[in-house]
Amino acid sequence: MHTPASAAFFWLLLLSAVPTAALAQETTSAEGEGPSKAPAAKLERVEINARPQSDTDLRRRAPVAKQLYGREELDKYGDTAVTEVLKRLPGVDLSTGAPRMRGLGAGYTLILINGDPAPPGFQLDQLHPSQVERIEVIKGPSAEHSAQAVAGAINIILKDAPKTTSMEARVGLGYSYDQPRPGLHMAYHHKQGALAYSVPLSLFSWKGVGERTTLTQSLGSDQQPASSLVHVLQPNWGHGYNFAPRLNWKRGDDDNVSLSTFMQKGFWHNRLSLQPLSLQGRPVLDDPSYNEGVWHNQNLNLAWNKRLDEDRKFELKAGWFRSGGEFDNEFTRAAGLRRVWGGNDTYGLTQAGKFSQLVGDSHSLMLGWDIDHRRRSDERNTQELAAAPVLEQDQFARVRRLAVFVQDEWELTPQWGLYLGLRHEQINTQSSVEGQPLRHTSRVTSPLLHLNYKFDPKGRDLIRSSLTRSYKAPGLNALTAPYAVSNRYPDLSRPNDMLSPDRGGNPLLRPELATGLDVAYETYFSGGGMASVGVFVREVQDLVRNVIALEQVGGLARYVSRPQNFSKARSHGLELELKGRAGELLPALFDPQTALNLRTSLNIYRSKIKALPLPNARLEGQQPWSATLGLDYRARALPVSMGLNLAYTPGFATQQTAQQLQTQSASRSADAFVQYTLSKQMSLRLAVNNIAPLDGRNTTRFDDGSYSQTLSYPRTSYQLGLDIKL
Q: Which residue segments constitute the domains of the chain, with CATH numbers given?
C-alpha cells in the first residue's frame, strides 16, 4: 500500500530544508591563476540482470535527477554533430550556439566529457554522434563533478573500447546552401585477449550562409542623428577532422588500464558582403570583410581502475591537453585595408583520483581529488592601413585548480535514499593584462544534498529533492581579455556609440554563487514510458553582466563594455516531461501493438534581477517558456522507420541594464527523418532539419534613442546518409 503522495511530498520538502552552508572567497592582489576537471562512476555491488538496462531504467536508478539518451536517440535522425542531437532534448536550448539548460546562459551549464569538464577550445558541434555512447542531462551538481553547474550539466559519454571486432562506416552528404558538402565517419574496433582498441575517424565539411537585414539608428560620423538599412550576406564554409583512438588493457578481473585520445582540427572561412542604404544623415557602417582561421584540440587521458576487494575500489587519472586557434580578419575600408590577426594557445596537465568504499549494506562512500594546471597565451595585432604601424597586444594567464570532495550515497531504507556531498575548489589565476601583473584567487565550498523517496521498493513512482550550492567562475577571457577596439569605430581619436562599444575584461570579477532547490515527481510505466513534473529555484549572488559605460581612452571618452558583478538574481521554473508508446499513453486512440512512440515536454521559466526593478528584468536570454513534441513510427510491412520533432520558443524581451533593452522574436524548429533498412548491416537515411523556419527579429535599444533591429532568414538543411556495419 503506497504512502499518500501528499504526505510524502510534505516530508520530502521538510527534509530538503536541512540547513547547509557554503563559503566563497575572493582575493585580488597586484599579480594571477585557475579552471576545471573531474571524475565519474561510483562503487556498486554486482547485480545480475536478465536483460540490458534501458535508458529509462538507468534514469530511474540514478541517485541524482538526470535524463539519459542512448544509441537509439543518437542514431535516429542521422545527425552529423552532437549539437544537432542536443537541440531536441527537453530543457536544452542551442539558439545562441553553446548548449544552455533552464533558459540560463551557456556559462551556467557544465559540459562534461566522460565525467570530466570539456577541455578549453573543445568544439562540441564538430563531435560526431557515432563516437558517443550516451548523453546524460544532469539537473543538479554532485560532489564528484565540478560544482560549476548552476543550471545543470550535460555529460557526453564517449564509446568505450569494444567487446568484439567490428567495422562501421557512415557516409553522408549535406546541403544547406550553394552546393552539397560530404562527410565521413568510420571506425575499426578490435579485441584480442586482454587488449581491445578502437580507431574512429570523422571527416566533416560545411557550407552555409547567414542572411539578414539590419536597421540602425545612431549618431553618424558627424555626431548628428543618422540611420541606415543594410542587407548582409555572410557565406561560411570549412572542413576538419576528429580522430579519437582508444585502448583498453584488462589486466585482470578487477584491474583495468585505459588510454583515450582525442584530436580535432578545423579550418573556417566567412565573407561579409554588405548592401547599405543611407536613410538619414551620415551613418557609420560596418566594413565588408574576409575572415579565416583554424582551431585545434588535442587531448590524452590515462586511467587505472582497480578493485581491491568486494567493497573497495580506486581510480587514478592523468591527462594532457592542448588547444588553440588562429584568425585573420581583413576589413575593406574606403581609406584602405584594415587587418586584425592573432591567436591563442592553451596547454595543461590534469591529475585526479578517487577511492570508493562500501560500508555495511547501506553506505557507499567516495572521496577524491582533482588537480588542473594550464597556461594560456593570447596575441592580437591590429594594422589600420597598410603603411600604418602595427599595434601588438600580448598577454598570458596561468591557472591552477585544486578540488577535494567526499560523498556518501546512503540507502536509509528500501524506499528512502540520501546523497550527501561536500566539494571544495580553489582556483588561482596569475596573468599579465596590458602589461600589469595580476593574481586572482577564488575559493568555493559546496555542500550538496539529494533525497529520493520511492513509493514502492521497485521505484516505479518516486520523488526527488535536491538542495545544492553551485557556482560559475569567471572565464579567463572575462578576466584577462585584451582591450578590443570597435570594428565600426576603429579611430581612437573619435568617439563611438553604445551600439558599437569597445570591449575589455575585468580582473576583479568574483564568481557567481547559486543556492538551488529542486523537487521532482517521476512515474515509470510498465511499457517503458515515464512522466515527470519538476520545479526548481536558483538564488544567484554576484550576477555577472556586461555593462556599457564611458571610459577615458587616450584622452577621449569612449563607450566600453566590460563584465561586472551586477546584482543578485532569482530564477525559478516548472518542467514537465512525458514519453512512451502511444498505445500506453493514449490507449483509447491507439492499438497497443502500434509501433509509435510519443514524447513531449513543457518548460516554464521566470527570473528577476534585484538591481533592475523593471518589467522584463530577466536573466540574459532566458525564454518565458518552451515546448517540444516528437513522434517516431516503425512500419510493420516495410523496413521503414520515420520521425518528427517540433520545438517552439515564444518571443520575449530582456532588460539588460537600466539603459539597454533587448527583444527576441519567436523561434520554431521542425526536424524529420525517414530511414530505410536495406539489410542487417546497411541502412539509408534522409533527414531534413529546420523545416519552414520562422524569420528572426532581434532588437537592441538604448535609452538615448539609438537602436539596432536585425531581421534574419534561417534556412532548411538536408542530410543523406548511408550506414554500414560489418
A: 5-725 (2.40.170.20)
